[in-house]
Amino acid sequence: MSNDFQIPYFKLDAIDQSILDLLHENSRISYTDIGKQVGISRVAVQMRINTLMEQGIIERFTTVINPTKIGMMVSAFFNVDVEPKYLEQVAEKLANDPAVSSLYHMTGPSKLHMHGIFADNQEMEGFLTDKLYATEGVVSVDTQLLIKRYKSRMGMKL
């Protein structure tokens, strides 16, 4: 039995790869500076970046903020079991909460994995009791506090 369904993907060439590497290191780098480093014109860089954006390869440009530098001292990961019929509703509520930095539907019919950042333990406790535990459809929550960050993925390094 053959699988006729194929996920379309965009084939990156060496120049696209180099552009993505440079943007990954510094998304504020100018088209001119990228062009100088990869050996193409500023206009060609702009066209390639526009194509990478149109293809969905580059999803967005963003700023990475160090949470501890602004007083957000508690970083925690949560595994949230949800009744299947409430999964989308709970995921939408959590995705819209400013404390939630990432949210994923993991294997299993009703498992959400999320990361949250809080000023202190009291703020996290309030989030747990007032938001997570109080949300209809949430069955259980497993919480793990971050001790030390060794690597944080901000986009995909190719």
From TrEMBL:
Top-level division of the source organism's lineage: Bacteria
CDD domains from the UniProt entry: HTH_ARSR
Keyword Cell cycle listed: no
SMART domains found in the cross-reference section: HTH_ASNC
Keyword Transmembrane included in the entry's annotation: no
Listed GO MF terms: sequence-specific DNA binding
Occurrences of domain HTH asnC-type (ranges): 12-73
PROSITE patterns xrefs: HTH_ASNC_1 (PS00519), HTH_ASNC_2 (PS50956)
InterPro entries cross-referenced by the UniProt entry: ArsR-like_HTH, AsnC-type_HTH_dom, Dimeric_a/b-barrel, Tscrpt_reg_AsnC-like, Tscrpt_reg_AsnC/Lrp_C, Tscrpt_reg_HTH_AsnC-type_CS, WH-like_DNA-bd_sf, WH_DNA-bd_sf
Keywords on record: DNA-binding, Transcription, Transcription regulation
CC terms in the record's Gene Ontology section: cytosol
GO biological process: response to amino acid
SUPFAM superfamilies for the chain: Dimeric alpha+beta barrel (SSF54909), Winged helix' DNA-binding domain (SSF46785)
Identification of the protein by name: AsnC family transcriptional regulator
Organism: Niallia nealsonii
